[in-house]
Amino acid sequence: MYYDVEFWVLFTSFFLVLTYLVLGFIIAFEVVLAMSGSSVALEWIKKHCSYKELYAEVIIFYPMILLGYFFLEMIPHYLFGVGKAAFDIQDLFDRLYQN
Description:
The chain is mainly alpha-helical. The longest helix has 31 residues, at 5-35. It has one domain (5-97). It contains 5 helices and no strands.
C-alpha cells in the first residue's frame, strides 16, 4: 500500500481540493462580512492579516469570494428584498488599510 502511487496521487488531490474549499469558505465569509460593513469582521481582518496577506488571499480565493457573495448577498436580496452590499474589493482595502 505504501508504494501504490495512484493512491497517493488521489489522496493528495482530495486533500488539496478539500483544503481549498474549507479555507476558501472561511476567507470568503470574512471578506463578504467585511464588505457588508461588519465592524467585527473589519477589526478581525486588521488584527490577523497584513495588506499583502489579504491581497494574496483575495487573489487565490476570488472564485470562492464570488460564490460567497452570491449566496450571502444576492440570493437574500432577490428572494427577500434585503439590502445588498456592493461587491467592491478596492473599497474594502481602502477602508481596512487607509492610514
